[in-house]
């Protein structure tokens, strides 16, 4: 039994752990920064199967009925109110309003994403 | 490598434990509302232990079978695309880190949990053909590594209690220590 092996079996700590814990701390710092920054976005983008489908203003209340999901824009927030996927996780996710946040329905390949670009050529504002 | 009866019974016993823990985990409500898929990773305790108890190839079999059975159980066949690569890669990482004898169990578990979650995010990026899932990378990796530390501790104390004939560390160094103490006296 070498000393290495003995330490491995006796203690749940080791000097080299610090490498992994440093990586952990870096990611924690990044997450904290991400959570507390971020302004309210103004455009909701809907992607289906990787293709950009619609863009809507966050300020107008709207109900968007897609083939497998229903997306609702209400009070400056977006959420998914109905989905026919087996796990229904997208319906449990709380509403989002900040830039860069998203709600996705993985089985139906849907992403609802908030962006802050106000100059958007293809914003479908009124007619729907 | 021989798949004799002893190995098969070891694999089945460990697989049963993994499945039971996986199914119980599934019934827990989401810990954090923004990430409903985040799980406690209890089955990873058994899988890390099985690397030590049964070896790499049996652990492979356990991970693959676990992914298939759990996907059937939860009714999400599409979850296989995410759980299979993540499970296999995290198994490989834990094996490499464990074999080197440089890292302790909590760190190994944390690293494998981080790898598991990041692989799931990368697969989601490929499936959705967009970079949006990458925005969740820091949160899922930090939370995953946190739960990984806890599962690593559980795994370590489990192995400490397990007798040596099953691959554990129960009294592995006690006899030597007693001998050296007697010699000193």
Question: What can you see in these coordinates?
Answer:
The complex is a heterodimer of chains A (128) and B (185). Chain A has helices spanning 3-10, 17-36, 89-92, and strands at residues 43-48, 51-57, 62-65, 69-74, 77-83, 102-105, 110-115. With 128 residues, chain A is α+β, with helices and mostly antiparallel strands. In chain A, the strands form two sheets. Chain A has a four-stranded antiparallel β-sheet with strand order 2-1-7-6, with no helix packed on it. In chain A, strand 1 (43-48) and strand 2 form a beta hairpin. The termini of chain A are far apart. Chain B is mainly α. Helix content of chain B is 72%, strand content 0%. Chain B is globular. The chains are: A alpha+beta (128), B mainly alpha (185).
Give the secondary structure arrangement, pairings included.
The complex is a heterodimer of chains A (128) and B (185).
Chain A: H1 3-10, H2 17-36, E1 43-48, E2 51-57, E3 62-65, E4 69-74, E5 77-83, H3 89-92, E6 102-105, E7 110-115
Antiparallel strand pairs in A: 1-2, 1-7, 3-4, 4-5, 6-7
Chain B: H1 5-27, H2 43-53, H3 56-74, H4 79-99, H5 105-128, H6 137-161, H7 174-184
Helix pairs in contact in B: 1-2, 1-3, 2-3, 2-6, 3-4, 4-5, 5-6
Number of strands of chain A: 7
Cα-to-Cα separation, first versus last residue of chain B: 47 Å
What share of the residues of chain B lie within helices?
over 70%
Number of strands of chain B: 0
Mean pLDDT of chain A: 79
Roughly what is the average pLDDT of chain B, rounded to an integer?
Answer: 87
Global morphology of chain A: elongated
Computed CA radius of gyration of chain B, to the nearest angstrom? 18 Å
Question: How far apart, in Å, are the first and last alpha carbons of chain A?
Answer: 73 Å
Structural class of chain B: mainly alpha
The main β sheet of chain A shows up as: 4 strands, antiparallel
Largest interface (CB < 8 Å): A-B, 41 and 44 residues
């Amino acid at each position: 039994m070498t000393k290495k092996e003995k330490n491995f079996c006796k203690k749940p700590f080791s000097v080299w752990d610090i490498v992994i814990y440093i990586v952990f701390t870096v990611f924690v710092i990044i997450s904290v920064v991400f959570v507390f920054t971020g302004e309210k976005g103004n455009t909701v983008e809907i992607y289906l199967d990787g293709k950009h489908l619609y863009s809507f203003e966050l300020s107008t209340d709207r109900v968007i009925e897609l083939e497998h999901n229903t997306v609702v824009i209400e009070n400056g927030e977006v959420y998914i109110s109905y989905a026919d996927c087996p796990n229904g996780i997208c319906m449990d996710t709380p509403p989002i309003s900040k830039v860069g946040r998203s709600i996705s329905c993985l089985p139906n390949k849907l992403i609802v994403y908030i962006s802050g670009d106000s100059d958007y050529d293809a914003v479908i504002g009124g007619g729907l | 490598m021989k798949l004799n009866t002893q190995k098969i019974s070891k694999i089945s016993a460990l697989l049963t434990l993994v499945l039971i823990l996986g199914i119980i985990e599934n019934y827990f409500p989401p810990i954090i509302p923004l990430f409903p898929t985040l799980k406690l990773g209890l089955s990873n305790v058994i899988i890390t232990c099985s690397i030590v108890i049964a070896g790499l190839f049996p652990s492979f079999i356990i991970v693959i079978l676990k992914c298939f059975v759990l996907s059937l159980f939860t009714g999400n066949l599409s979850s296989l695309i995410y759980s299979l690569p993540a499970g296999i890669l995290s198994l490989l990482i834990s094996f490499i880190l464990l074999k080197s004898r440089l890292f302790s169990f909590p760190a190994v578990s944390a690293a494998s949990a981080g790898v598991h979650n990041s692989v799931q995010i990368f697969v989601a990026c490929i499936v959705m053909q967009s970079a949006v899932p990458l925005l969740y990378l820091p949160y899922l990796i930090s939370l995953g590594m946190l739960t990984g530390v806890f599962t690593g501790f559980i795994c370590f104390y489990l192995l400490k209690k397990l007798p040596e004939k099953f691959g554990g560390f129960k009294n592995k160094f006690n006899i030597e220590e007693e001998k050296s103490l007697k010699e000193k006296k």
